[in-house]
Amino acid sequence: MTHLQSLDDRFAVDGRIAFEASPLGGPIVRLLQGAQEVLVALHGGHVLNWTDGGEGLLWMSPVARITAGKGLRGGIPVCWPWFGDHATDATKPAHGFVRQRAWTVIGSAATSEASMVMLSTATSTADDQLWPHQAEVRLTVTLSKGLSLFLETRNRGAGPLLLTQALHTYFRVSDIGRVEVRGLEGCAYLDKREGFKRKVQTGVIQVAGEVDRIYVGETGRIELADAGAQRVMRVVSTGSGSAVVWNPWSGKTARLGDMGSPEAYRQMLCIETSNAGDDRITVAPGGRHVMGVAYEVVRG
Ligand code: TA6
After folding, report:
1. Model's pTM, two decimal places?
2. Residue 36: what pLDDT?
3. Of 178, 180, 197, which Cα lies nearest the Cα of 188?
4. Over 90: is that where the pLDDT of 300 sits?
């Protein structure tokens, strides 16, 4: 029996939850709910795509390929058990290591209102060089009125875990010049482009150059308004006291080399639900922490 057949036997639901091989490489799960569809790769627990009535709502690099030991540019990377560069060792991978490895499916469900899949990965002694702690991280992806994700950390060790993390969501936009981000007015932020200098957001966020900011404080309700697409993406977070806003603009797009085209930055904006910057989490032995986000599209 193949891996896909085993997944199908255990977790598929006719017409709602299916397992298949992805053109990017590797197994994926397809969730269907009304006019919505989500594709989740077992690699990295990575949401690759979300469509509503055929409209693509996430941005994915056209040159992205699933490769063991590497993350993917686009969709919703899971940054865990640290966000950004490692605090003390630059040789360790940015955004942690679980986005680079295969996860396992541990549950699924389909009701009249929702389709859901749960994936998991756990640290082992093989990770001690990277992060010498015993922990499990679970991702629950649910399609209902919109798309929601819950990232749960379980501390299986004898000591406390110091955690930073993010759901690093790449939203597709009509054009970066036609969008604004609302809900962070008055929030403090750490500006990565100026050595994480602390500043305060005045007014809504409009992007006309590289933006790389960790907003801290009241960041739980954000709207990405896209005048060109005539839609607003509502972002409601829980278990999070920070949010990252990032667009690489042309210079970093060229340096990254995996965005697919020099102008790719015009069609994407990252709004990331996080525990980052000042917003670090300590998980007690035997304890757990859940960070969640719900995305809902409002049209017109
Ligand atoms: O979340 C913003 C950020 O930390 C940027 O600084 C940029 O590095 C981006 O993440 C992409 O990181 P990655 O490791 O996926 O290339």
Report:
1. 0.98
2. 98
3. 197
4. no
